[in-house]
Amino acid sequence: MQQSPDQIRQAYRQMRLIREFEERLHVENPKGEIAGFTHLYSGQEAIAVGVCENLRESDFIISTHRGHGHALARGCDPRGMMHEIYGRADGLCKGRGGSMHIADLTKGMLGANGIVGAGQPIAVGAALACKARGDGSVAVSFTGDGASNQGTVFEAMNMAVVLKLPKLFALENNGYSEHTGASYGIGSDLKTRTEGFGIPVWEADGFDYFSVYEATEKALDYIRAGNGPAAILATATRYFGHFEGDPQAYRAKDEVKTFRETVDAMKTIREKVTGAGIFTAEELDEIDAEVLALIDSSVDSARNGPVPGEDILMSDVYIDY
Amino acid sequence: MAEMTMRDALNQALHQEMERDERVIVVGEDVAGGSGGSSGNEEAAGGIFGVTKGLKTRFGGNRVIDTPISESAIVGLANGAALAGMRPVAELMFADFVGVSLDQIFNQMAKFRYMFGGKAKTPVVLRMSMGAGMNAAAQHSQTIYPMLSAIPGLKVAIPSTPADAKGMLATAIRDDDPVIFFEHKALYARKGEVPEGEYLVPFGEAALLREGSDVTVVAIARMVPFAMKAVDKLAGEGITCDLIDMRTTSPIDEETILESLSQTGRLVVVDESNPICSIASEIAGLAASKGFHDLRAPVQKITAPHTPVPFARELERLYVPSPNDIEAAIRAVLKEV
Q1: Is B306 a known active-site residue?
Q2: Shortest Cα distance, chain B CAs vs residue A71, angstroms
Q3: pLDDT more than 90, % of chain A
Q4: Domains of chain A
Q5: Is the domain B2-194 a CATH 3.90.25.10 member?
């Protein structure tokens, strides 16, 4: 734990923000005000934050359909995101994208993505731009165990190696590829497979912020030294279904409960931070209260946000047409 | 006849065809679901929309095959298995995922027979859900049938009723050519009378769902019930329309449309797709080239706008053609002389 108290406070707050954002959406979703598919990141907070706390302003990330955590960890505005998820004209994407397409280019966040495995080649391109810029910046793609079986991911891995690009593959194994177990869909294992492309892999405990942070730090040192791409492989679980409303018949009844009670990412970071005497439980509770108030007010304003109309439907298809 | 949803009608067709021909296999992501999961339930999904429910229990894991998320390999697998003598029914959860697997569709399955001197047979059925209605946004809501209908070698089937869903899926499975089978996700819960036992609906034959003398209304998929609403409302005012459900956009039943047009002289085409190179454009072109002398007014094309499918409820509602839009088009085509 060589991070400064400020860094740790920031990481804890980001994780709490993701957790409460998602837990609240899980409560709000069945009320019927949120349209479309919502895929929640609860359970995996340590991964997004452990990676993104290592990044510089000039770096890029690209996310997945389960993108809220990555977006928040990268600094996207939670209120703007909440408005987007509620389909509001003043949402981060004007209500056009919704949960699955949250993006903020001003934050180097190249978007959540509805197509599984689509982000990796795009991040290869962003990494090419980083290399051309020559400022040491990197591009990160988040890839689930499910997406890892897409040909696009294999192509992106090979091309990043061939072109020796500053690209981090952040591999997240949450145990399930939609409604099928990860072990069924992945023939060998993600580490061996990734190494087979010539990409070194640092493994991490996806429930432990410090473990992910340190693995990412090592991978980024390797990348920023000009060695080409590297990967981290973090294992955790998602607490909710593939999408909100998923009955999860593939999952044992007590599975999530056990994870929540034993290795939970918030529990883990709190224990480590208070155990090391960096912050007291009361100090962390204060952060929690601030985050909860922010979520409350974001939901309230999102519920009453402006409805998008014809002008938003018809604009931005092109820049000039 | 029994009343059932389109979802159950499709499921029945799959059961019956798998029973009838052991070369029929079902492949795709979560077509059974649950393998490798902690509950031990190895049929935990039955397809994301429940269309393939019960198949694995009935026919076993050798014929109902869950795949990793690998759309390109799913379609490639179906192509290869078909060339080697099987009759795969492959599923892409969402039509949008055609984007991931397009090479296997338009360079491979569509062209084998022609390129290989007429010696190849690729009896693949590629099922996929399509369409707006769930606020699933730009990458999970598209109706891309115009794009695939333009590819020689593919047949394209798009049922709008449970009975047609059953009969057309059975026909697709027995067809020796590759068939792209679109299922509108907003129609899965639509109920209707479905014939029991073996039931086949031939391709290239549109369905005349309403008969009238004033206007010919041609529609596809979810636009069929929308158009029916408009047509039935106008019938109350004494405006009567032929309502034609195209059912297949490749082949197109030109005869039924032209025959109707020769009686009415006025044409409204309703298509949920984007306007450029749409099926609406194709049918308007058909009227202009082969029905020109029958036309008494400009053809009305009702389509989505030239935009991606938006997310927010209000935006999606604006995007999708509505029964009101169709009613207005019918009135408009009657005014023009």
Answers
A1: no
A2: 18
A3: 99
A4: 5-314 (3.40.50.970)
A5: no
